[in-house]
Design a protein that fits this description.
Layout: H1 2-11, E1 24-27, H2 34-45, E2 52-55, H3 60-68, E3 74-78, H4 79-87, E4 97-112, E5 116-119, E6 125-128, E7 140-143, H5 147-158, E8 163-166, H6 170-178, E9 184-189, H7 194-197, E10 203-204, E11 218-224, E12 229-244, H8 249-264, H9 266-271
Parallel strand pairs: 1-2, 1-3, 7-8, 7-9
Antiparallel strand pairs: 3-12, 4-9, 4-10, 4-12, 5-6, 11-12
C-alpha cells in the first residue's frame, strides 16, 4: 500500500521539460566562399552562434528569396541585390528586411580569355576578345547567384549592352567560357578568393568606376599575381548579414546578443590567426541598409 501511495504521489508531480533552444537558419553560400568562412569565424568568438545553423546556397539571390520566403532567419547578401529587389522589382517585402551587421566590400571579378591579336597582309593588327569592359558590347556574360543582378546593373549603369547568361554555379560559368558559349564570366566575391588564386588561362578585365555607380558601388583594386597583373581596377559593393524585422522576444533577444557580440569581438575577428582577411575592412559603421534594432 505504501509503495502504491508513493507511486501515485510521484505521478502528480509534473516532469520538468527541457526548453527547446531557438535555432535560426543562416543562408551563406558555397562552403569555400567568403560568406561561409566569415560565418564560421564569428562562431569561433561568439557562443551565440551555437543557435545558428548554416545553410549552403548559390549566393545572394537565393539567400534573399529564402529570407523573404521565411525559410531562413538570416542571410548574407550583397546590398546591390537588396536595392534591385526594392527599386527595380518593386518587391515591398524587402522593406521588412534589416541589416543585422554591415560587412565587407565584395569586389566584382570579370574574367575573359586572353585577347587574340592578328596581323593581316598589310601589317595591320586587329584584336579580338574582351580586354576592356566596353568590349562586352553585344557579347555574352555568364553569371550566377547575386552576380546576375550585378551584371545587369553594371550593364545599365555603364551603358554597355550585353546578354547576361544565367548559369547554375561557378563551374558552369567557366565551362561556358571555355566552350565559347560565353565571352566573359562575372563574379562578385570578396578577395582574396581561394578559387580565383587557383585559376589559370584567363585574364581579369578592368571594370571602370563612373559617377553613375555612386551610392551603390565604390572603386577597388584586384590583386591576383597568378593572373598576371599587379593590380586590376574594378568596383565593389558592400555586403550585409540581413534578417527580417522580427518582434518575438526570443528571436529578438538572440539576434541582438549575436549582433552585440560580433561588434564587441571585431578586433579578434581582425587579428586572430585563421580569420578571413576581409574582416580587416569591416568597421560596423557604414550601414548600406536600415539597421536591425
Amino acid at each position: 500500500m505504501q509503495r502504491l501511495a508513493l507511486t501515485a504521489l510521484l505521478l502528480t508531480i509534473p516532469l520538468a521539460q527541457a526548453a527547446t533552444p531557438t535555432i535560426l537558419n543562416v543562408a551563406t553560400g558555397s562552403s569555400t566562399g567568403t560568406y561561409s568562412i566569415m560565418f564560421k569565424n564569428v562562431g569561433k568568438v561568439c557562443t551565440q552562434s551555437a543557435y545558428l545553423k548554416e545553410r549552403g546556397t548559390s549566393g545572394s539571390l537565393e539567400n534573399i528569396d529564402l529570407l523573404l520566403g521565411n525559410e531562413v532567419s538570416l542571410a548574407f547578401v550583397q546590398s546591390d541585390v537588396l536595392k534591385a529587389k526594392q527599386q527595380i522589382d518593386g518587391d515591398t517585402r524587402v522593406d521588412n528586411i534589416k541589416a543585422l551587421l554591415p560587412l565587407h566590400s565584395e569586389e566584382i571579378h570579370l574574367f575573359a580569355k586572353p585577347p587574340v591579336q592578328k596581323r593581316d597582309l598589310l601589317g595591320r593588327v586587329t584584336t579580338t576578345g574582351v580586354a576592356t569592359f566596353a568590349n562586352l558590347k553585344g557579347k555574352r556574360v555568364a553569371a550566377w547567384g547575386g552576380s546576375l543582378v550585378t551584371a545587369k546593373v553594371l550593364s545599365a549603369k555603364l551603358g554597355v549592352p550585353y546578354t547576361v547568361l544565367s548559369v547554375k554555379d561557378r563551374d558552369a560559368a567557366f565551362a561556358a567560357l571555355r566552350g565559347n558559349q560565353a565571352d566573359a564570366v562575372l563574379a562578385v566575391v570578396g578577395q582574396p578568393a581561394t578559387w580565383v588564386k587557383d585559376l589559370s588561362g584567363v585574364n581579369l578585365v578592368p571594370v571602370p568606376y563612373a559617377p553613375s555607380l555612386q551610392g551603390i558601388y565604390t572603386s577597388a583594386k584586384l590583386l591576383y599575381p597568378n593572373l598576371g597583373a599587379a593590380s586590376v581596377p574594378t568596383v565593389a559593393v558592400q555586403s550585409v548579414l540581413a534578417t527580417r524585422d522580427f518582434k518575438t522576444p526570443e528571436k529578438k533577444d538572440l539576434l541582438m546578443k549575436y549582433q552585440k557580440c560580433a561588434m564587441s569581438k571585431l578586433v579578434n575577428l581582425q587579428e586572430d590567426e585563421g580569420m578571413h582577411p576581409k574582416w580587416q575592412e569591416v568597421t560596423f559603421k557604414t550601414w548600406p541598409w536600415p539597421q536591425y534594432k
